Amino acid sequence: MSRCQQVGQPILRSIRQQSYGYSYSATTCSIRYFTSTPRRRHDGPTLQTGSEPQNPIEAALLGATPLTGVPSKAWTPEQMASFTSPEHGSRRRRAAMATSGNIPFEQLPYQCFQEARKILAEDRAEKIAKIAATMIKIKHTESKDASQFRGGEHYKQKRLAALRAYVDELKVLADINDPMVKRRFEDGKGDMTKPVYRYLAEKKWHAMEHKIITQRIHQFHIVPDILPKFEPTVDLKLSFRSYPVQPGAILDSAMTEVPPAIRMQVFDKGGRLMTIAVIDSDVPDAESDGFKWRCHFLAANIPWDPTKTHLALRHIGVRAEGDVAVPWLPPYSQLGSPYHRLSVFVLQQKPGETLDVAQLKELYDGDAESRKAFGIKGLRDRFGLEPVGFNMFRTVWDDNTAAVMERHGIPGADIEFRRARVTTMKQPRKAKGWEAKRQKPKYRSLWKYSKRIA
Amino acid sequence: MLSHMAALTPRRLPAPLRMGRNRHLRHWTIHRAWLLFRRRQREARESRLMLQHQSMESACEALRLTEGPGTRDQGYLYRVAMEKKGVYGHHGIPIEYARAQVDTPPRVPWNHDWKA
């Protein structure tokens, strides 16, 4: 026996199982997961005296005979033969690949992995028991009369809400350590009706995108210009003409001529109705020498839940549910005015309440003046909405603005804004310097140096 | 330009782990299980220590409320038990009496009357 055969044989024997040979199945594997040491005693003599390997795969891997005529359920002979070629890694690895069939990920025979899974399964069982106990407690609390609580009905509802929050937390904790949950979430196949995936999604959002949005709110003074206080809790992304847009980007007016599509993810369970509003907060107003707001889009009663992600604003009221109160007005900025901040706000309506779209239309969808009467704060206060999502972009005068304004019948493309000239109140200063002094007739001889120089 | 973390941090950082996806998932599973295991150990230890401390406290309280032996008044046994004679070694000084090390000498350099 050559040296490499001597080295390879015990490895192969430890991987190969005595009677299963090369065709493992998942069930046999679940009987013997990861360790071969205790079974080895029953395998008969540990060191085989015969130099002939008994398994054709083993023989082929050891280089003794070419692999021929191997019947297999899991692999075709060609695949089988490919496992014996050295380009698939070490001999040990090839043997493992050839003999381990299609074992599911969770049953892969790695000792430490399986021990870890045992610990995690134990923890999960504990959490589930806690969930069951808490559910019983909730039922008990619900059945009790409010007069039995110290603070009455209010106290009872508070207690119930706390218990339900605890159950949600336990549901997250029960599944958070599952590698398959992690894998599914990373693949984007997470079921958003389940608390653990919502939790993971929220954590991912908070890792970067939420920070960026918060920074935009801060640096573009959305707080306190538009709202006195605002903390976004919903992931909102914009795309124009199916191009995703970075928050705060300056966009071409040809891009923004059509309404955007939004990608929105809510992280709390249940359905609710949303209102979407787009507001330009930098409309120059020459009369008051200041800036005003203008409503560019307003739609209400859009049903939303965690499983929904995508909505094109032009589909609202047509293909998607919801009512458009103010149709899309392409954002524009006249020549000379500084960049306009276009903020997209998503506001959550009170549970079970729909907004009266006729009233919204009457308020905000008229001439340019009624659009200017729009404000997010006013909308929030008047209709009891809660701002939850935010995103923004900017617009400046560019080559396409005039054409866009003409196409949509917006007047004012020929207006250019200029800063009013501020004249100084100081007295004009006398000319100073060597030349100025020598302009007088006294210095006639030096005029050739002091007049018409340069 | 020094932009790499290894160049900017005073301590040498180990290289990031490079693993295939399945292997990384297994690694992650094991890591989570290890964290969970340590948390359980820690919590078990803390609760055990807390129980021990509470039972010691209740024993001391019981001692404080007992009278005797003989004609001794209430709490005598407690006071005796709380004495720290010999705890710090033969003729040792309890740590409570040790002077904190300071920059300046004390007003009274040596207390000649002091007895342990």
TrEMBL record, chain A:
On the tree of life, the source organism's domain of life is: Eukaryota
Q: Where in the cell is it found?
A: Mitochondrion
- Which Gene3D superfamilies does the UniProt record give? 1.20.58.1180, PEBP-like
By its UniProt entry, which InterPro entries does this protein fall under? PEBP, PEBP-like_sf, PEBP_euk
Q: Which family does it belong to?
A: Belongs to the phosphatidylethanolamine-binding protein family. Mitochondrion-specific ribosomal protein mL38 subfamily.
Q: What does this protein do?
A: Component of the mitochondrial ribosome (mitoribosome), a dedicated translation machinery responsible for the synthesis of mitochondrial genome-encoded proteins, including at least some of the essential transmembrane subunits of the mitochondrial respiratory chain. The mitoribosomes are attached to the mitochondrial inner membrane and translation products are cotranslationally integrated into the membrane.
**Name this protein carries in UniProt:** Large ribosomal subunit protein mL38
- Which organism does this record belong to? Lasiosphaeria ovina
From TrEMBL, chain B:
Q: Name one GO cellular component term.
A: mitochondrion
One annotated GO biological process: mitochondrial translation
Entry superkingdom? Eukaryota
Q: What is this protein called?
A: Uncharacterized protein
> Could you cite one Gene Ontology molecular function of this protein?
structural constituent of ribosome
InterPro entries hit by this protein:
Ribosomal_mL40_fung (IPR042831)
Task: Identify the species of origin.
Answer: Lasiosphaeria ovina
